[in-house]
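Troubleshooting: if your tokenizer reports a length mismatch, compare your output against this known-good record of 305 residues.
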Amino acid sequence: MAYISNYQYYTNNGVAPTDQNWGEYQYVSLADLVNNFMLMYVGDDKLVNNVNRYNVLFHAKRGIQEINYDALKNTKVVEIEVGDDLRLILPPDYVNYIRVSVQINGVLYPLHENTQVNYASAYLQDNNLNVLFDQDGNVLTGTSDLDANRLAGLPQTLYNGAGLYAGQYGWEVDGAWYFGYNVGGAFGLNTETANINPSFRVNKAGGVINFSSGVANQLIVLEYVSDGMENGDDDSVKIHKFAEEFLYAYIKWALLNNKFGIQEYVVNRANKEKTANLRNAKIRLSNLHPGRLLMNLRGQDKWIK
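Known-good structure output:
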């Protein structure tokens, strides 16, 4: 970010949005990164020569993605209400989730991932169980029994009546309710799914998160990791200054590694420089302060009853 006056920093010269420059000094834009590298690292008297700008831009983006995966991990948080379809569409810059929670009265209840199958695509079949196709030869699909049961809350549903089992999950068969035993009910329990909160599973190919029953019309808070590409808008891509030196080392290594006629020891030296700068960037970005460690160490002498 270029140097600006305090008035411009705090008020953006009165132009909306007035908070546009807040905290921007921590970051270096993608355009500045590429310009700096072309100016200081590329030339006839430099180790890297005869390189086009688009090559530098490509490797700069790849380096920003790698540092976001390994060190930055800028967590983005969105709150979305889930409808009756028990499905949440992933954000456009989603790469991987950190935590999925349901928000009830201002309290976040973390949900656990169901590693077992909870969704499927049903192939339509005729009376002879032959798969049906359309006029283009594509398989006809419909709602599977697995999805129908999940949307209906099967095999368990929440009992909203009164009495001893109010608010508990059970089975409704022909209007009668059945519940598990409270005593000994955990015997043989699958600890992988032992959670009173609803579960979910990410459908990566479909770009959605499928939930079990119990979260319909509830607010879901999704914490996820992005790759820092800001939906492909190069003007909005930026990197923290603590990782700037790593980006230069990464671009230099990537260019030398893909260039013909470069000696192996030169590539290895660039690779070692990149690895060392990545380690330094991780240490700097870890943001370890003595005060934070002290707060954790205060509980080391705590008595456990």
